[in-house]
Amino acid sequence: MVNLAPAPTIVWFREDFRIADNMALLEAEKRGQPTLCIVILDDAHLPGAAARWWLHGAIRSLDETLRGMGGALHVFRGAARAVLAEIVRKTGAGAVFWNRRYDPAGREADTAIKADLRARGLTVRSFPGALLHEPWSVCTRSVAPYKIFTAFWRAACALPAPFPPHPAPERLVFAPPPPMPDSLITRHEQDGLLPRHPDWAGGLRDMWSPGEEEAGDQLSDFLRHDGAGYATARDFPGDEATSRLSPFLRFGHVSPAQVWHAATRKACPDKFLMELGWRDFAWSLLFFNPDLATRNLRPEFDAMPWRHDPGGLAAWQRGQTGYPLVDAGMRELWHTGWMHNRVRMVAASFLVKHLLIDWREGERWFADTLVDHDPASNPMNWQWNAGTGVDAAPYFRVMNPILQSRKFDPHGVYIRRWVPELAHLSDDAIHAPWESGATHPYPAPIVDHRAARERALAAWKMI
After folding, report:
1. Residue 37 gets which letter from DSSP?
2. pLDDT at 146 over 70
3. Does domain 131-164+212-288 have CATH number 3.30.1330.10?
4. Cα(207)–Cα(205) distance, rounded to whole angstroms?
5. Fewest C-beta in 10 Å: which of 13, 233, 413, 437?
């Protein structure tokens, strides 16, 4: 019997959980065939624990949106190459579309899958959408990547502005799901992405609601209330003046182009737009340095005498270092899956320089606990802080967590929120509680600042 059913177009969602400004979905609509929207949970490409929690919410939110349009988001589990081949076989699909990813493992997998499907006669297309400019488009005249952000950003700004965001498809005709084996079909509550025993995600649920509509609301609220003062207020964690868009960008609920054009319409400060550029810079570094998370980009740091200090690492992870600003940040991270940008720098500097612990230990911890973790920004920022990467802060610049606390949280608003055992101390005493003489259950510093600084500088001079 001849199969007269139309050959559907598969749209494979990975890190682009939105329907607006989604080129893969828009081009599927233009093709004029029924669309099958899918996600494949491949254990080889799943993020850390906190980001997996977000991924679960992203899938549910997009599924609800598509169901409101008469379709659904069909979720499968297994090795993406094999699962996608089976879906194609069962549906007779004529095309597969996706939006590009730029991490080494994702690029390698996509290249192999594209070759497989094209060899079978399918139309396979990939599209940009995760960055303002794709990594290979911002290079030096010798087609080399930039190693200094200011030069990178100057070159990026000389390129044409990002295209205006595309609207959501006006009309989609959806294909029915394929008859797949039960072992490959994933139900939302059994997808293995949520923590079970124990369920530690209560703080994440209180703080975040993944989804495209929520991303739009977050962007609008930021531009309406905080955008104008962003350049200065962003450094003060007690003010909550940052955009908090990072997890929404990480999972593609909003595109960089959407953020860019919304911000420029509101005359948002250049500093905010530069943060989108810093994100692009990170992806450029990862694109040209696939081992960014494991190798010092400055090889002289291969000789750095890092300390093996499980106790110090655990105290840092738990927010029990005795330095209130550091501990407030680490507790915020544990509770919400996010940390204020200024405090991230102070906490990272403390691990690498006060404790002299390898930056890769911190990178791995953030990878598992950040809802906004991505494989480019996280290692680049750790290498920047450790002095081991390109355009890095010099290693001899050791942040003083007490001075940082007094400067950027002068009234202890942020510290009181996350270190409540110090809430009764005065604005002056809260930054160095061991000097106050007051009784409290807060731990003493696990290392003396001056001694730690001298130890870090001595280790640096050795290399």
Report:
1. E
2. yes
3. no
4. 5
5. 437
